Structure formats: structure tokens, C-alpha cells
Amino acid sequence: MTSAAQYRQYAEECMEAMRAALIPEVRAALFVAAQRWIALAEQLEEAEDASAYDRRTQSTPARASARN
């Protein structure tokens, strides 16, 4: 599975290529690609955060009922 850090690295590579590109349309396309990589990184981080939250909240009632 690709990590958010890898997606951010891809975005940075797009930005580096964008800065070196001479054709405006290529620069624009690379900028859009970088934005999309960043959006994917953010979505993955949000999903990971939600999953971690779900695991914490789902395990809490089980521990409480085991004590009773």
C-alpha cells in the first residue's frame, strides 16, 4: 500500500518538474498532478485517522463490559 508520505513525494517531484518545464501547458498539468497527489495523501491520512479512532472507540466498550 502506498503511504501518504510517498504521495507527498510524488507531489514534490511534480513540482520540481513543473519548475523546470518550459511549456506553459506542461507546467499547468504538472501543477494539477501535484495537487492531486497532495489530495490523495490527505484522503489517506484522514482514512487512517478515522480507522484508528474507530479501533479505539470499538475496543473501549469491550474492555468495560469485561470488567463488569
Give the gist of this structure.
By secondary structure, the chain is an all-alpha fold. 90% of the residues lie in helices and 0% in strands. It has 2 helices and no strands.
Descriptive keywords:
single chain; 68 residues; mainly alpha; 2 helices; 90% helix; 0% strand; rod-shaped
What is the total domain count? Answer: 1
Total DSSP helices: 2
Average pLDDT:
88
Strand content: under 5%
Oligomer: single chain
The H-and-E topology, N to C, reads as: HH
Tell the overall outline.
rod-shaped
Could you give the count of β-strands?
Answer: 0
The percentage helix is over 70%
| Class computed from helices, strands and strand pairing | mainly alpha
Q: What kind of sheet is the major sheet?
A: none
Radius of gyration, Cα only, in angstroms?
Answer: 20 Å
Compute the separation of the termini in Å. 40 Å
Low-confidence stretches: none
How would you describe the overall organization of this protein?
- The structure is a single chain.
- With 68 residues, the protein is mostly helical.
- The protein has one domain (4-67).
- The chain is built from 2 helices and no strands.
- The protein has helices at residues 4-20, 24-67.
- The longest helix is centred in the last third of the chain and has 44 residues, at 24-67.
- The termini are far apart.
- The model has no long low-confidence stretch (mean pLDDT 88).
